[in-house]
Each structure stands twice: as structure tokens, then as C-alpha cells.
Design brief:
With 70 residues, the protein is mainly alpha-helical. The chain has two helices and two strands. Strand 1 and strand 2 form a beta hairpin. The termini are far apart. The relative contact order is 0.06.
Amino acid sequence: MSKDNLKHKRMGKKLVFDDKGNPHELHLMDDEEFRGNLLEESKRFAETDVMDKEEAREEETEGAREDAGE
């Protein structure tokens, strides 16, 4: 094919196959949807990180109390 023909040729559709082998079109997110999902995941990660740090502090405090003989 010439370069001119390639410019006007449609791109193929991307397919993914489920567990049963059935093809489905790959859903591509637009930028706005991607940013929304990214922001949501970032918030969830930050909340989980805060909870993990609090639990670690509590465990550290409990361990220090046990070492001090309380």
C-alpha cells in the first residue's frame, strides 16, 4: 500500500477475550475519564496510607509499653 492509502485506511479495533474466549472491544478511556479515575484512586490510596500509618503507630506504642513493663 502506498502512504496515501494508509492515511485514509481505518484502524483496526482492539479486542480482548474473556475467559470463555468471546471477543469484546477494548474500552479506551478518554482523558477526562482517566483523570477522574486517577484522582479517585489517589484519594483512596492516601486514605489507606493514613490508616496504615495510624495502625503502625498504635502497634509501636503498644510494643513500647510492653517493653517498659506496663
